[in-house]
Amino acid sequence: MSQTELPYNPLSAVAKEIHGSWVWFLVLGILYMILGLTCVIRDVVATFATVAIIGWVLVISGLFALIHGYRAKSSSGFLFFLLSALARMTTGCLLLLFPLAGAMSLTLMMASFFIVGGLFRAVGAGTVKTPRWGWSFFSGFVSVALGVLLLVQIQASSFLFIGFAVGVDLFVDGASLIVFAAAMRRLAKLPT
Asked: Is residue 158 a contact partner of residue 104, using CB atoms and an 8 Å limit?
């Protein structure tokens, strides 16, 4: 290898592929920040909207699973399709009928989501070290902190905190996407 040749860097190859899409990362980051700020300001509404959306998704997916089960009634898995559909629909209906209890259950699930997702984001950022990786690491750290805070205050804040935590997570993730877009834009200006 001569001194002018550089070794292949897979990260720079990926950066070259996506540098033309920096505007989409910027737009997505701005949308995340706006949505996140809205969720923080209207935390109770965001909590119950989250519970309702998840409830409806379960009911609708249960209906599709029921239709699929009916169409496959001659197969040996019919009973499993039927039970899966009924479990989804029942869970969705319970979330819609008892949103406060649903918020408590979802708070526990959200806490684990934030902790696990944040750990993956932080470790991934520290391992891959994309441009401005510190922001992604910080975003992961904030997600872990929100998850731990949720677990500690689960009884007192389950109907408030889901909306707040989702909002903060979206806002910080949006900020990291904006910084990433700026780095990709700057990278696009560099000579190849």
From this structure: yes
